[in-house]
Fold this sequence. Notes:
Elements: E1 3-10, E2 27-29, E3 35-37, E4 41-42, E5 46-53, H1 56-65, E6 71-75
Antiparallel strand pairs: 1-5, 1-6, 2-3, 4-5
Amino acid sequence: MTTEYRIELDRAACDGIFACLVRDGRFVEADDGLATIESGADDSDSVVDAFDDDRLADAQQAAEACPVGAITVEVSDDE
């Protein structure tokens, strides 16, 4: 079953600890040494992307693992 959800990564809050990378492969290290979302729209201060897949749990685990709370996962209300 797929779920619509949105991931936001606050790059200004990111410390480059990369706990997210080991929990969700969509998070990668950017050239500046901080995390980013591989397919996300990056404005340097934040990265946002929407998904409709079965990987919600991975995104939530990445958000929970972030020690600085830089990742937010919001599930669509259309469920």
